[in-house]
Amino acid sequence: MIDKKTLEHIGKLAKIELDDKDIDEFLPQLQSILDLFDEINSVETETVEPTFHVFGLKNVFREDDVKPSLDREDVLKNVPKKEKDYVKSPKIL
Amino acid sequence: MHNDEKPRVFQSYPEIEDLPMHENPQPNEINPDSDVIIGLEIHVQLNKLKSKLFCGCSTSYHNSEPNTHTCPVCLGLPGSLPALNKKAVEFGIKVALALECKLLDQTLFYRKNYFYPDLPKGYQISQYDFPLAKDGRVTITTDAGEKVIRINRVHIEEDPAKLMHIGGMGHSKYTLVDYNRSGMPLLEIVTEPDLRSPKEARRFLDKLRSILDYLDVFDGNLEGAMRIDANISLKGGGRTEVKNISSHKGVEKALLYEKTRHKNLRMKNIHIKRETRHYDEQRGITILLRTKEEEEDYRYFPEPDIPLMNVKEWETRLRNEIPELPDAKRQRFIKEYGIKEEHARSLTSDIAIANYFEIISKEIDPSVAASWIADVVKGELNYRDINIKESNLTADKMIRILKKFVLGEITDRNMVELIREIIDSGKDPEEIIKKRGFGKVGEDEVLLLVKKVIEENPDAVKDYRNKNDKALNYLVGKVMALSKGRSDPKEVINLLRKYI
Ligand SMILES: [Zn+2]
């Protein structure tokens, strides 16, 4: 069962603010998703190999070759806040 | 890992183990020499690769303007896809094998999710269950002899961007981000909590650095090439982690500070909380960053954009590419050159010095070469904080001056002066010898000086005849001073004895 505290924690991790109205709305939705996973979990998978990638690809590499980087002008074009060619962001400790 | 063990997604992250908790021991039960428990996590930037871990951006950004070495992949732009650098995996395997780790049959990348300005995608591509390699060991030399430090794991991950705080972390109101470092190939090496003192931690790091230099996978002199997180606890107490220390000396100092802090808290019977701290290099103290309760929940899951790797089959090929490592080289030096163990250890701790010694030993008696390089040259280099390649003392110059020394043309004392001046000025040894008069005074000249001193110091001569040994020392000193240190004291003593 998912409770209010867990939902608030998930919201915090995702940097989404949740008020009581949101929690009332999302709790049953998330609960039904978890119920579905419980149903999937009930399938016997002892002898089944886990699937990480659906195509079954293995060992895909590239050689250690340098390719041109982007022009800084282009890189900073869509940056909302910048200073001295750096991207500016709020301070988080 | 056994062959039949298959990847599972939800497995606890194999962190350095918490020590079994028991009753808090009383302060007087703490033995400061054995009850300190330290484990290290070392991040090594594989900066000798040409391109980044998942994109073709160049790794040579260290002297560049900010945000000039980026592309959609390392900026985390939507729709970009990581393409794994094969050589990064090969370098990682070489390091793992050199640390005597076992490669896993299957290894894969995970997403480590957290929001931070240094991470443009909102997650770091790292490893979790099924790292590249596990269960290795490194032998270090402690004051009590050799000691094995176990390696828990070696894994590959991408480096986050670099954050700048103008005016220092405490003062600046915002963060500036340079994405040049974003996506640099990193190796994370995690030890078991086998270290028992800050000094042992430093010895371990020195040894690891030496092995990494031998493997030629990184340039440790570049900024941020090796960053260390240090975990420390006292037996039975809580553990703290000091993050992101950039020097070996810094690790030792930060751990000494923490050790004292833990002890003082225990004396006052205050419980040590699990927390993450920052080492302030300038002030030499650690500062609280966050407590365990505030720790992130990383929600690891397998990286869907990078296929699984079965690279164990590369093991034989890569093992063959590993050069002779410090321990093996040390043994060979002792056997092949007949030099002292202590000298062999000192010479082989630095691959450049070891090679330097081998070149010089082709022309000079190895014991003489070993002693001058290990006891004098290394000290002079350390004092100036430079390496042998940065110094002006080429192997050729060292051979030339050692030849003169062996022939008795230069005294011990003047050799040291000469080495210093070559390192500092880069001038030709012969020029310095001539200008500073370092060439040994000829026998005839010494004899003249001895006779002069006997003549000018009748009182001291009389005292010596009355069996006063101090008088002899005084006379030797006079001759040495007149010859400006260029005569051999033993020879002077013999001559004085003969002519008094
Ligand atoms: Zn890039």
UniProtKB/TrEMBL annotation, chain A:
* Biological process, per Gene Ontology: glutaminyl-tRNAGln biosynthesis via transamidation; regulation of translational fidelity; translation
Which keywords does this Swiss-Prot/TrEMBL entry list? ATP-binding, Ligase, Nucleotide-binding, Protein biosynthesis, Transferase
Q: What does this protein do?
A: Allows the formation of correctly charged Asn-tRNA(Asn) or Gln-tRNA(Gln) through the transamidation of misacylated Asp-tRNA(Asn) or Glu-tRNA(Gln) in organisms which lack either or both of asparaginyl-tRNA or glutaminyl-tRNA synthetases. The reaction takes place in the presence of glutamine and ATP through an activated phospho-Asp-tRNA(Asn) or phospho-Glu-tRNA(Gln).
Q: How does it assemble?
A: Heterotrimer of A, B and C subunits.
Q: Which organism is it from?
A: Methanoliparum thermophilum
Judged by the first EC level, this protein's enzyme class is ligase
Protein name, UniProt field: Aspartyl/glutamyl-tRNA(Asn/Gln) amidotransferase subunit C
What reaction(s) does this enzyme catalyze?
Answer: L-glutamyl-tRNA(Gln) + L-glutamine + ATP + H2O = L-glutaminyl-tRNA(Gln) + L-glutamate + ADP + phosphate + H(+); L-aspartyl-tRNA(Asn) + L-glutamine + ATP + H2O = L-asparaginyl-tRNA(Asn) + L-glutamate + ADP + phosphate + 2 H(+)
UniProt similarity note: Belongs to the GatC family.
**Recorded E.C. number(s)?**
6.3.5.-
- Name the PANTHER family on file: GLUTAMYL-TRNA(GLN) AMIDOTRANSFERASE SUBUNIT C, MITOCHONDRIAL
- Going by the entry's taxonomy, the superkingdom of the source organism is recorded as Archaea
**Which Pfam families does the entry link to?**
GatC (PF02686)
As one GO molecular function, the record gives: glutaminyl-tRNA synthase (glutamine-hydrolyzing) activity
